[in-house]
Design goal:
This protein has 445 residues and is an all-alpha fold. It has 21 helices and no strands. It starts with 10 loop residues before the first helix and ends in a 13-residue tail after the last helix.
């Protein structure tokens, strides 16, 4: 008799898998949009300066363009308070679905801005206003996406799933730089196509990408961990209406420690992935094309390293990984900078790849570490405040401080010593922390 046995499929398990996939895709896309915009603004800065800033000295116009970008970082802490509070009070889904619309809309409108020639001083003023809206909205994206993923992911794969968030950062930078490079190679920096419409394309793409991400996020329920907390509060007749106050009064120590851990991530990310190409060209005098090629290779390797780091952290724990990253930067940053001053392609590539590996040990672990540091009622707030304050204070200033240190000391290795100091602070913070990587998120108090 023929067997009619079939493998039973658990509808509940299948539904959970589909939901987790939607959460993962929307988290990846949301953070990708943010960093694709960041890369586009940076790589098209000379064109934006020409189109939207007052005519005259090109150097002054470029400084004004980057000044607008720097000023927008002031909104990061403000956004961290708002989105952290709302994410803990109204839910992760509400905060993420709302923030992506604001962020992508502001980015999209930048692509529609009239030129300085058309509306005069209103052009840079509108650019600054839109960058501030974008920065305000984006400050809840990284923390919210990682928190949402952590609360949905299986406990034994939490690090791997959370590594999607920093991976999307690198992919956003890579796609933005690739698009700009292709456009400049094929049309030229100052061609009519680039100055009229070419530079607008990456910003306009944020519109449809944001709508897609918003749609996916509205198709999933809030995380089971968050819903469980809300059910318990309702059963007790309580409400979690002051998460920021609760964070600052009962969880101040882990907040300060997390800020210390985020300092290394902030300085390391901006130094390794955005400052080093400029360092090679301006300080070392290295060929711009080769410096760009090395950066592209490192970004590709960075994505692979990120997933590996997240996977390894699931096995060995977040604390060990973050301590290794801190110690690695303390020991190897100065030698790496000396290697980059050799002007040898292979040696520079090895040095940057090793720095990328160290950064990914930190970056691929940090999002899951921060998600596991705070209890559910203040998880979004704790993550958002520690991460965004560190990036606003240390991340946005990393390139400026590095250049200033070289000018003040005359020593091209000075930025490396700054990185070492930051790494020491992060190492101390990690030695004072607790490892919650093996715990259920509902057990973290």
């Amino acid at each position: 008799m023929a067997s009619n046995d079939t493998v039973a499929i658990n509808p509940m398990a299948e539904e959970e898998h589909v939901t987790l996939r939607r959460v993962a895709v929307s988290s990846f896309l949301g953070n990708f949009i943010e960093w694709f915009d960041y890369a586009s603004y940076s790589y098209f800065a000379t064109v934006i300066a020409l189109v939207l800033m007052p005519p005259g000295d090109p150097t002054v116009a470029l400084l004004e363009t980057f000044g607008v970008f720097a000023l927008s970082f002031l909104m990061r802490p403000v956004g961290a308070f708002f989105w952290g509070h709302m994410g803990d009070k109204k839910g992760r889904k509400w905060a993420l679905a709302t923030s992506i619309l604001l962020m992508s809309a502001a980015t999209f409108v930048i692509g529609l801005l009239p030129t300085y020639e058309s509306i005069g001083i209103l052009a840079p003023i509108l650019l600054l206003a839109l960058r501030m809206v974008q920065s305000f909205s984006a400050s809840g994206e990284y923390a919210g996406a990682a928190t949402f993923l952590a609360e949905y992911a299986p406990a034994n794969h939490r690090g791997l799933y959370c590594s999607l968030v920093p991976a999307s950062t690198a992919v956003g930078l890579l796609v933005g730089s690739t698009l700009a490079t292709l456009m400049f190679v094929n049309f030229g920096h100052d061609s009519a196509f680039v100055t009229e419409w070419g530079w607008r394309i990456p910003f306009l793409l944020a519109g449809p990408l944001g709508i897609i991400t918003h749609y996916i996020r509205t198709r999933v329920s809030d995380s089971p961990v968050y819903q469980e907390m809300q059910d318990k509060l309702e059963a007790k007749g309580e409400s979690d209406d002051k998460p920021i106050k609760l964070l600052l009064t009962r969880h101040l120590r882990p907040l300060i420690i997390s800020f210390g851990a985020c300092m290394l991530n902030a300085v390391g990310f901006y130094a390794v992935l955005t400052y080093l190409p400029n360092y090679l060209q301006d300080t070392v005098g290295y060929n711009a094309g080769d410096a760009s090629l090395i950066t592209t290779i490192c970004l590709v390797a960075y994505v692979a390293f990120i997933f590996l780091s997240g996977r390894v952290s699931d096995r060995f724990g977040r604390k060990k990984m973050l301590i290794i990253a801190s110690a690695g930067f303390i020991v190897f940053t100065v030698p790496a900078f000396y290697m980059m001053n050799t002007e040898n392609f292979a040696i520079i590539l090895i040095a940057e790849l090793f720095m990328c590996l160290l950064l990914t040990i930190n970056d691929g672990t940090l999002s899951s570490y921060l998600s596991e540091t705070f209890p559910t009622e203040v998880r979004y707030s704790g993550f958002a405040l520690s991460f965004n304050f560190a990036n606003a204070i240390f991340g946005g200033s990393a390139s400026f401080i590095s250049i200033a240190l070289i000018q003040a000391t005359g020593n091209p290795i000075a930025p490396a010593w700054y990185m070492v100091v930051i790494s020491v602070v992060a190492l101390i913070a990690m030695c004072l922390t607790h490892d919650n990587s093996k715990k259920k998120l509902t057990d973290i108090k």
